[in-house]
Design goal:
- The chain has about 475 residues and is an alpha/beta fold.
- It has four domains: about 80 residues, GMP Synthetase, Chain A, domain 3; about 140 residues, P-loop containing nucleotide triphosphate hydrolases (Rossmann fold, 3-Layer(aba) Sandwich); about 80 residues, Orthogonal Bundle (Helicase, Ruva Protein, domain 3), CATH 1.10.8; about 90 residues, DnaA protein, C-terminal DNA-binding domain (Chromosomal Replication Initiator Protein Dnaa, Chain: A).
- Helix content is about 55%, strand content about 10%.
- The chain has 22 helices and eight strands.
- A five-stranded parallel sheet has the order 5-6-7-4-8, with helices on both faces. Strands 1-2-3 form a three-stranded mixed sheet.
- Helix 1 crosses helix 2, helix 6 runs parallel beside helix 7 and helix 12 packs across helix 14.
- It is globular and about 65 Å long.
Amino acid sequence: MVEDAWTRVKRRLRAELGEDVFSSWLARLEMDDLTESAARLSVPTRFLKSWIEAHYLDRVLTAYRSEQPAVASVSIVVRGAMRETNGHAAKFATTLRRNVEASAQPAPTKAVVVVQAPQPIPPRDGEIAGAPLDPRLTFKSFVVGRSNALAQAAAERIASHESGPSLYNPLYLQAGVGLGKSHLLHAIGNEAREGGRRVIYLTADRFMYGFVASLKAQTSLAFKERLRGIDLLVIDDVQFIQGKSIQMEFGHTLNALIDAGRQVVVAADRPPADLESLDERVRSRLAGGLVVEIAALDENLRAGILNQRIAAVKAAHPGFEVSPAVVSYVARALATNGRDLEGAVNRLLAHATLTGTAVSIETAEVAIRDLVRNREPKRVKIEDIQKLVASRYNVSRSDILSERRTAAVVKPRQIAMYLSKVLTLRSLPEIGRRFGGRDHTTVLHAVRKIEKAIGVDTSLSEELELLKRMLQD
């Protein structure tokens, strides 16, 4: 029941604050503990904790009290700094310790091999303490397919460039969750650092936290000088960068590095033009380099990723075997992202290790059932709606965004606004901004007009249902 209430709270916050704000700041909130009058939530970083406390804590409390009036306070802690004080965590820790100790004892039939993950590569002397690079994420371990071949080639060219910027500066990698953009960023950083270049890899959270911390410590000038004295800057999840002063500093850093002939690599989950929270000049600078989209993984690429993960696991568990038929089944069943595929291999390994039976299609169905059930529906973007409606009604997307009021343009525009309201979680003001900066009342008028029209016009209703299916497939 606690989880159900928290799910409703998140749904309420998403609707009230809009998809952009929720995804940027509140999506990583998790329920940690709930008493009769207090809720404790957790986040992964200190910066995110302080930002939510300063800007959204009251909204979170209000939303929680709407679902559970008895809750009088909400607190936020950092997950990495929390002690395992609740009974579930303690029980899990005890079980894990026993399993590890048991694995060290000789067994008559089989042994469990415990593999320690490689330690992240720390920065060298004189480098800024950015986020650590994972030595496992290299170009050699990156599986290449049609959807990511261009991104991989551009990334490898940049990583092997001896000095100065490449032709692709900045390189902007665009991809959804789990499609490999972070893998390529780590691969670039690892290879460039091996070549002797000064590299810093930062997530958006780390960049913002470092800048704010330097302001508090009155060392912002030193922070800027150190950041701009490197050879290669790699920033992940740039869509999360918020705050006017932080955006300004990010823009100045981009300009300083690029103008000085230093390489910049950036990754985000949307194209530069859709980074609405960023200053227009920063978006323009990001779009001025090479923008590469990593598309969804096709079935062959998913099978290749699975085979690579299985081969890596077999190095520690030689008896682990997965037939091509099972690989094919999993590749078809999990069509979302690479992280689900890695989770599937872990589940297959656990099943084979704990039950001592071979992995078959039937056991695979059971092992990955939760991954198949929890797949989220396709996220529809307003840009995709605008493009499809424009194509369907023989107008251009710029016409839909323009001030033109001819009948040939007004109707497609209203249909696109209606579909944006129905198929996305964007608020009316956000939709208005995406349609040429229109007021939310204009969007509301369009939505009501289309709703009224489909009640009496069967052909229009069927047309809209077709557009919905095309956008959601």
